[in-house]
From TrEMBL:
Annotated protein name in UniProt: ATP-dependent 6-phosphofructokinase
Functional note: Catalyzes the phosphorylation of D-fructose 6-phosphate to fructose 1,6-bisphosphate by ATP, the first committing step of glycolysis.
Pathway note: Carbohydrate degradation; glycolysis; D-glyceraldehyde 3-phosphate and glycerone phosphate from D-glucose: step 3/4
Entries under PANTHER family matching the protein: ATP-DEPENDENT 6-PHOSPHOFRUCTOKINASE, PHOSPHOFRUCTOKINASE
Lineage summary: Bacteria, Bacillati, Bacillota, Bacilli, Bacillales
Catalytic activity: beta-D-fructose 6-phosphate + ATP = beta-D-fructose 1,6-bisphosphate + ADP + H(+)
Residues annotated as domain Phosphofructokinase: 3-275
Main location: cytoplasm
Cofactor(s), names only, from the UniProt record: Mg(2+)
EC number: 2.7.1.11
Annotated substrate binding sites: T125, I126, D127, R162, M169, G170, R171, E222, R243, H249, T250, Q251, R252
Activity regulation behaviour: Allosterically activated by ADP and other diphosphonucleosides, and allosterically inhibited by phosphoenolpyruvate.
Length: 319
């Protein structure tokens, strides 16, 4: 293989740039040419494709977002859209594609592979919702952003003796909520994977209040309910003064953490190794600090789960 392409697709995540850099540098190291596809699958269909050099990825390892831009593209879900993409890749003489993104992006990559066009997926999403890898690129940075924000909220929560309901991202996964809840000592963590007894949440709040706690933090994963609705229920059940914070897209931005940069560099480079070995239709990941690869369909058929030991621990520490 002499020419490969790289694109970022779906929700952006801090560390995607470090992954692009790794793909480009590792491929050039092996004597290949690399082409950047801008705006995800939409750019692929439109032929928004440019050759990348060593210098194209200089000074981006520390930047959030993605220099290749990202997009969502409904047309690519159709046979015609996929064929248009393949036609563009063939026109440019590109023989394989590395797709950095989440599960939706991987489905697109699998479709191309099934049509005879080799693709490798690199998991880039803050949600950490992809089975087959312990961590996805961007999760650690988003977690640190949330922790930083909650530390600030704590100061004002204590001063005014308030209960804060904080909504965090994660789509259908509770990882960001669980990890940030543990990192921030939240009283309650509401995640989609576990049924939370509302009465238990209220009891814990009252217990804390009775023993003189000056503030309480409840973290709600966006996949369960909105912080506004949850706070309404808390207000109805208690006379505690309650406030809501929705952290929103701040969680997606910012300079990637050192962990995310290292992870992105390892996964991006490994994807190039695999494509050179002739592998296709798989995603790279990290399990127990070892680089691994799995068939995309096999991974997408698995159900994402949270770490139950961590969930139990969060309950034990917030008695
Ligand atoms: P993420 O990759 O972050 O999960 P999306 O689910 O929005 O984000 O998917 C990103 C893009 O991947 C979509 O806009 C679409 O172009 C492509 N995609 C998603 N699902 C499929 C599918 N089943 N077949 C082909 N392409 C898909």
């Amino acid at each position: 293989m002499k020419k490969i392409g790289v694109l970022t697709s779906g929700g952006d995540a801090p560390g995607m740039n470090a992954a692009i850099r790794a793909v480009v540098r590792k491929a050039i190291y092996h004597g290949m040419e690399v082409y950047g596809v801008k705006h995800g699958y939409q750019g692929l269909i439109d032929g928004s494709i440019e050759k990348m050099e060593l210098g194209s990825v200089g000074d981006i390892i520390q930047r959030g977002g993605t220099v290749l831009y990202s997009a969502r593209c409904e047309e690519f879900k159709t046979e015609e859209g996929q064929q248009k993409g393949i036609d563009q890749l063939r026109k440019h003489g590109i023989e394989g594609l590395i797709v950095i993104g989440g599960d939706g992006s991987f489905r697109g990559a699998k479709k191309l592979t099934e049509k005879g066009y080799p693709c490798i997926g690199v998991p880039g999403t803050i949600d950490n919702d992809i089975p087959g890898t312990d961590y996805t690129i961007g999760f650690d940075t988003a977690l640190n952003t949330i922790t930083d924000a909650i530390d600030k909220i704590r100061d004002t929560a204590t001063s005014h003796e308030r209960t804060y309901v904080i909504e965090v991202m994660g789509r259908d996964a509770g990882d960001l909520a669980l990890w940030s809840g543990l990192a921030d000592g939240a009283e309650s963590i509401i995640v989609p994977e576990m049924a939370e007894e509302f009465d238990e949440v209220i009891e814990r709040l009252k217990r804390g209040h009775d023993r003189g706690k000056k503030h309480s933090i409840i973290i709600v994963a966006e996949g369960v309910t909105s912080a506004v609705d949850f706070s309404k229920r808390v207000k109805e059940a208690t006379d505690l003064e309650t406030r809501v914070t929705v952290l929103g897209h701040t969680q997606r931005g910012g300079s990637p953490s050192a962990s995310d940069r290292v992870l992105a560099s390892r996964l991006g480079a490994y994807a190039v190794d695999l494509i050179l070995e002739g592998k296709a239709g798989c995603m790279v990941g990290i399990e127990k600090n070892k680089l691994v690869d799995h068939d995309i369909i096999e991974v997408l058929n698995r159900k994402h789960s949270i770490d139950l030991d961590m969930y139990r621990l969060s309950k034990e520490l917030s008695i």
